[in-house]
Amino acid sequence: MRAPWVQRQRRVKARAMPRRPPYAPGMAPPRLLVVEDDEAIASGLARVLGTQGYDVRLERRGRPAVTAAADPIDLVILDLGLPDMDGIDVCRALRRAHPDLPILILSARDQELDVVAGLDAGADDYLVKPFKLSELLARVRAQLRRAAATERPSEAEPLQVGGLRVDIGARRAWLGSKELSLRPKEFDLLALLAAEAGRAVTRERIMYEVWDTDWLGATRTLDTHILALRNKLGGDAITTLRGVGYRLELP
After folding, report:
1. Cα→Cα distances 193→88, 146, 196, Å
2. What is the pTM of this model?
3. Percent of all residues in the chain with a pLDDT value above 70, rounded to a whole number
């Protein structure tokens, strides 16, 4: 029996998922590593991603997936419930070995602590099952675009907000004399807030500019990143504007 989300999304694919390459003509297709032990979900993902023009490699266990990522891979889609090791440990191993590799977690673990654990392990995004294939594809495209953008050099002047300095080109940030250890999306979020220091930044704008999506549903991924930045900057550095978004304020 196929997983429910696979059955539901087959109709969506026919209507809303045209076969078009997600890359410029003449370029090699993006290489995706899908780590999923459920046969129905794995084959469904491979089929849908393949019709979108991606080069998909499947792994159903964690240890072979870590080894497979040694080959050129542009993005990892990672399930957490793997038979040989927990997906969180796989995520940590991938992040240690490949600091800039985009990692998107797909999991039925939907509690806030689960999302926090996944992001703290090094994931760039976290999508809860069951999910809409259209949203998954949008997030895949967003991660690939953002990864490509970080490869392009930037000559922007460092941002200075009180004792905080953010160097966009080097993707480094300091609070006073201490350099901050930031995950990729934490840096992108901090850079946006610093560029708008003292002004309100809406949740919708953050989701669009940092995660490159018009996603208007629950934003637990954003919430956990804000919490992480508060822990690193100090609890009063980022003000929550209820119903609006956030504002960065540093003395």
Report:
1. 29, 17, 5
2. 0.61
3. 82
Q: Which of 133, 150, 167 is the last residue of a domain?
A: 150
d(CA 51, CA 205): 30
Tokens of 202: 């809406």
DSSP secondary structure string for all residues of 219-245: -HHHHHHHHHHHHHH-TTSEEEETTTE
Q: In this structure, what CATH number is given to the domain that contains residue 235?
A: 1.10.10.10
pLDDT tens-place string over residues 105-137: 999 998 989 999 999 999 999 999 888 888 899
CA 119 to chain centre: 9
Tell me the backbone φ, ψ of residue 85, rounded to 5 degrees.
Answer: -160, 155
User: At which of 150, 169, 193 does a domain end?
Assistant: 150
What is the three-class DSSP state of 108?
Answer: coil
Contact (CB, 8 A) for 157 and 165: no
What is the rounded end-to-end Cα distance, in angstroms, of the chain? 59
